[in-house]
Amino acid sequence: MDKLLIRGGRPLRGEIRISGAKNAALPELCAALLTPETMTLRNIPRLQDVATMLKLIRNMGATAEFSPDGTVVIESRELHFPEAPYEMVKTMRAAVLALGPLLARFGEATVSLPGGCAIGARPVDQHIKGLEKMGAEIVIEHGYMIAKLPKGWTRLKGANIRTDMITVTGTENFMMAAALAEGETVLENAAMEPEITDLGEMLNAMGAKVTGHGTSEIRIQGVEKLHGATHKVVSDRIECGTFLCAVAATGGDVLLKDGRAEHLEAVIDLLKAAGAEVQAVEGGIRVRSEGRLEAQSFKTTEYPGFPTDMQAQFMALNCIAEGDSKITETIFENRFMHVSELMRMGARIDVDGKVAITHGVERLSGAIVMATDLRASASLVIAGLVADGETMVDRIYHLDRGYEQMEAKLRELGADIERVK
Ligand code: EPZ
């Protein structure tokens, strides 16, 4: 099991490129199944979750070539196994995104229910309810969702869908299912993340008729078929935000190429309030920081609010900042597992349900800590970069799920970090 060994105390300087967004690549790899024609996706990041999704697609009978420059070419003419088996879904909840495309293209889909994961139960009841509104008949047997069209139907039917809460992958499943449905679908409380906007752009490049993507109301006029296209995946705002927090914490001066400041307004506003300098520049974002920052309180909410996927990283920054902060996690029920690990490094944090209070300390001290989930791992890396002495982050397979070559990028910026077996 790989570990990361970090010797803290160095500022970060230089420039790195932000990779393509994991949370855009995963739905877009599934969207490629909506057409039998060749799909070319560029700027796909080399991540464990992407490898899992490619394995899933190949298992269905599609071919998918992943070249070193980050281009994936998918042919799904011979898709003959519209299934997402448990052993592939259990490690990656995003496999639920196969449901919409398989139903839309083949009229049937058998997708394993995702188990829970470290940060919460992660139910998919909203996905099921929305697809049932479009006519799908879905039964749950032996841990699988078995979906098919009613007798005599050849396509799903457009519907008005309002989910009980805003759901990112739910919105994405409905967009993909609706693209080939008969008639119009209106998503009334759609998620507005940049990855949703990017998926809408890709579907339209394939001949779909999607409008309103990026707002809370998305309209999709179903079409008979979609054709092949080329699409470049949007850059990863969470990877970018993670590096912004790292530089803010360690001090330094870094250019994040391909970073999109307009996708990180809530995070950037908070970093500026803390005392870091963050500005959009030609082709990226420049971040500078020196001296101690001031802790900032925040509440995670759906986009464009402060993203839950940035909560752990900003908490690490607050732990060594001046003063106290109140952090409220409103999206997931168990997303404070990094707290006990940060406290092993000397952080002072009090958790009460969905609220964590941090009390800033001058220094953290390096320790052996354990990653528990993807963004918690990133939080521990940031803490290790600023702590006195050595930090060993264990179980970094969590990190590898969502960050492309994080230690190489950090070394590029002058960090003393290495991967050990
Ligand atoms: C997406 O997960 C992201 N994953 C998550 O990123 C991200 O944290 C999350 O959105 C919130 O922004 C991908 O895009 C692959 P939701 P998703 O459906 O779609 C509840 C990361 O670190 N809910 O928006 O699974 C759910 O339990 C990952 O990259 C239901 O109750 O999240 C949660 O409390 C972690 N029933 C809330 O809604 C449902 O059917 C939001 O979940 C669906 C969701």
Automatic annotation (TrEMBL):
Pfam families: EPSP_synthase (PF00275). Its EC number is 2.5.1.7. It catalyses: phosphoenolpyruvate + UDP-N-acetyl-alpha-D-glucosamine = UDP-N-acetyl-3-O-(1-carboxyvinyl)-alpha-D-glucosamine + phosphate. NCBIfam families: murA, PRK09369.1. It comes from Ramlibacter pallidus. InterPro entries: Enolpyruvate_Tfrase_dom, Enolpyruvate_Tfrase_sf, MurA_subfamily, RNA3'P_cycl/enolpyr_Trfase_a/b, UDP_GlcNAc_COvinyl_MurA. This is UDP-N-acetylglucosamine 1-carboxyvinyltransferase. It comes from the Bacteria. It is found in: Cytoplasm. Residues 7-410 form the Enolpyruvate transferase domain. The keyword Cytoplasm applies. Keywords: Cell cycle, Cell division, Cell shape, Cell wall biogenesis/degradation, Cytoplasm, Peptidoglycan synthesis, Pyruvate, Transferase. UDP-N-acetyl-alpha-D-glucosamine binds at R93, R122, P123, V124, D125, Q126, D309, I331. The modification 2-(S-cysteinyl)pyruvic acid O-phosphothioketal is found at C117. Phosphoenolpyruvate binds at K22, N23. Pathway: Cell wall biogenesis; peptidoglycan biosynthesis. GO terms for molecular function: UDP-N-acetylglucosamine 1-carboxyvinyltransferase activity.
